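SAMPLE LOG
Freezer: B-3
Tube label: C17
Construct: single chain, 285 aa
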Amino acid sequence: MNFGGIEEKYEALETAAFVVVPVPYDLTTTYQGGTRKGPAAILEASCNMELYDEEVEQETYRAGIHTMEPLEAVASGPEAMLGRIEEAVSGVFELGKIPVMLGGEHSITLGAVRAARKRYPKLSVLHLDAHADMRMSYQGTPYSHACIGRRMIELCPVVQAGIRSMSVEEAVYLRKRRLSVYSAAAIRQDRAWVGKLIRQLSRDVYITVDLDAFDPAVMPATGTPEPGGMLWHDVLDLLREVCRKKNVIGFDLVELAPIPGMVAPDFLAARLAYRMMGYVSQKSR
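STRUCTURE (predicted):
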């Protein structure tokens, strides 16, 4: 199964602009698990969507989308898994391709960001999420999904959007570091928020989208759904402008925990991944 169910000639690695990296990893999730089933659900949904994108007015798949075999989970722990992810994503960069990682829990993003940071020294990360994920450690590991924001900020600048849940520890840390955080409430109150956020990013940007950034009314299939989130066009308004004004070198969609019999969240994730590919390829035309 490849992304979009596309013809072999558009799936060939040699000519593909994008490489989809499925990572069905689900070790440190809390509350509700199931994100290991996310990549397969997104791929299946992608085979049922129209491949003409009416917004970007193109069939994005013609730029080439190669789908890798899913990365096998490492049972020894999240740190070892991150090494495997970093190696895989580094290989995508070495081929001159744009990685599109499908998760899986949010801890996997650190492997991709490590690979991106080595190739793009002035990298910044756009982090869409309901949760700040700025804990130093959680449940005995600094590589928990609840620590991904903290681990990324140790590598490069991070700008967050959609945040609406955090611990006291995280709130103190964010205030002390004066980090760029655009909460879900601030987004609703400030029409100029997109422009302000983009000015905080460097030229080279990696985007990580935890799907719980969306309001659970449109994205219920996450491990920890938080009320008051972003809506479809809130997210697109931001991603469209970031892809237009910055050099987006890769991105991921994580934390989809499929709900049996409910395909709408899977389809949203597939459409979002395809739309983001469209935004990136449209700029290069």
